[in-house]
């Protein structure tokens, strides 16, 4: 059972490896090389999540109607386009406005790729092993996602130092050219029969869980977008290491505690995870040295690890099996919302206060998510009228 899941989430790993490549170096490229401010540096990261936010519902409907294999192939193609645009943007660095425009277009293409591959891979895996193993498929997809981010961040730094920012685009393009033939060879799963629930009905049932996911994901968005500038403002080295530690803790928790969702239920696991994440974010806010900041990033990764699958399992149970691709798409949109707003809002907070204050606000958002999850649990068990 594990091999079919791994064979599917491998496409998630390849896609998110390309996302990780640019996380540590893109803000610096926009800020230092092109000469733009912190707001545009944050926007360059967030544009990807804006595109994912817009395209995620369509990706879910595509997975339900045309099959997850076609959806994943579309995403891999868009990721290749992103790599080509990023390469051209790097070569045009002598013209900052043009370079920034190409980088933003590359981020938009990458956002569309993320929505198609992320949603399609989960639906593809569920179709291969059965919907009763939804939590396991989502967990392994998350391992691929954040394992790739953890590997991609330091690799991106190394590539930039050795070969320049253009190497990020080249490697992205090469990875996708290798992944696309493998996706074509993999067996497709049949499209589920039955009348599909209206999209508005699916969205209404999933939305409360998505809001909880968004509140719990703001911390990750702030770490991914601003950790490099946070470290630079304090005069510290090792921002890429902090991203890697976050990813390693995330992956480790998925390996060790992934099955607790089936044992304890999604609500309990989500609330415990959000409490741990908030503790890590508060530690980052109060960090006085590199070690304390690294510890905060590690604890935040530990807590954030199971938020998506814990709430996701509860969300997809609210819709019929033949509409679960759409449900996953809607649910995942709220992760994209968090990532999209983290850049501009975080930049605004940093401009008015400090980069550290960003993580204090993110901790408050995680605490609000705990309250919402408790309310959803009460409604589901009938203890709240």
By DSSP (H or I, 4+ residues per run), the number of helices equals 15
- The low-confidence parts are none
Helix and strand pattern: HHHHHHHHHHHHHHH
Mean pLDDT: 84
Structural class by helix and strand composition: mainly alpha
Percent of sequence in beta strands: under 5%
Major sheet summary line:
none
Query: What would you report as the Rg, rounded to the nearest angstrom?
Result: 19 Å
N- and C-termini, Cα separation:
41 Å
Task: Give the strand tally.
Answer: 0
Helix content: over 70%
Q: How would you sum up the global shape?
A: globular
Could you walk me through the main structural features you see in this protein, from its secondary elements to its overall organization?
- With 385 residues, the protein is mainly α.
- α4 packs antiparallel against α7 and α8 packs antiparallel against α15.
- The longest helix is centred in the middle third of the chain and has 36 residues.
- The N and C termini lie far apart (41 Å).
- The model has no long low-confidence stretch (mean pLDDT 84).
Q: What are its keywords?
A:
15 helices, mainly alpha, 0% strand, 385 residues
Secondary structure layout plus pairing:
Blueprint: H1 2-23, H2 26-33, H3 38-65, H4 68-91, H5 96-129, H6 134-163, H7 166-185, H8 199-234, H9 239-257, H10 260-264, H11 266-286, H12 290-304, H13 307-316, H14 324-352, H15 355-380
Helix pairs in contact: 1-5, 1-6, 1-7, 2-3, 3-4, 3-5, 3-14, 4-5, 4-7, 5-6, 5-14, 6-9, 6-13, 8-9, 8-12, 8-13, 8-14, 8-15, 9-12, 11-12, 11-13, 11-15, 14-15
């Amino acid at each position: 059972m594990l091999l079919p899941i791994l064979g599917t989430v491998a496409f998630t790993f390849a896609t998110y490896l390309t996302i990780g490549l640019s996380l540590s170096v893109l803000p610096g490229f926009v800020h230092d090389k092109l000469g733009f401010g912190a707001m545009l540096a944050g926007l360059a990261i967030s544009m990807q999540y804006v595109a994912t936010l817009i395209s995620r519902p369509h990706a879910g409907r595509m997975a339900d109607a045309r099959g997850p294999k076609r959806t994943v192939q579309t995403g891999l193609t868009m990721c290749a386009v992103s790599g080509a645009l990023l390469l051209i943007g790097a070569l045009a660095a002598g013209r900052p406005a043009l370079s920034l425009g190409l980088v933003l277009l590359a981020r938009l293409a990458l956002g569309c790729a993320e929505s198609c591959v992320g949603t399609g891979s989960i639906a593809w895996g569920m179709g291969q092993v059965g919907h009763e193993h939804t939590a396991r498929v989502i967990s392994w997809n998350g391992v691929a996602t954040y394992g790739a981010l953890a590997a991609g961040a330091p690799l991106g730094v190394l590539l930039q130092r050795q070969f320049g920012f253009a190497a990020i685009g080249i490697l992205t393009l090469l990875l996708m050219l290798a992944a696309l033939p493998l996706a074509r060879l993999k067996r497709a799963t049949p499209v589920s029969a039955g009348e599909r629930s209206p999209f508005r009905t699916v969205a209404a049932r999933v939305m409360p869980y998505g809001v909880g996911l968004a509140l719990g994901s703001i911390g990750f968005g702030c770490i991914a977008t601003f950790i490099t500038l946070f470290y630079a403002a304090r005069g510290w080295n090792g921002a890429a290491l902090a991203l890697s530690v976050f990813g390693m803790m995330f992956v480790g928790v998925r390996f060790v505690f992934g099955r607790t969702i089936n044992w304890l239920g999604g609500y309990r696991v989500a609330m415990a995870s959000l409490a741990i994440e908030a503790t890590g974010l508060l530690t980052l806010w109060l960090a006085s040295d590199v070690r304390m900041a690294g510890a905060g990033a590690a604890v935040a990764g530990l807590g954030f690890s199971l938020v998506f699958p814990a709430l996701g399992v509860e969300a997809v149970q609210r819709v019929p099996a033949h509409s679960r691709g759409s449900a996953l798409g809607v649910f995942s949109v709220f992760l994209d919302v968090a990532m999209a707003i983290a850049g501009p809002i975080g930049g605004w907070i940093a401009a008015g206060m400090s980069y550290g204050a960003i993580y204090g606000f993110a901790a408050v958002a995680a605490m609000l998510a705990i309250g919402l999850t408790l309310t959803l649990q009460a409604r589901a068990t009938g203890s709240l009228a």
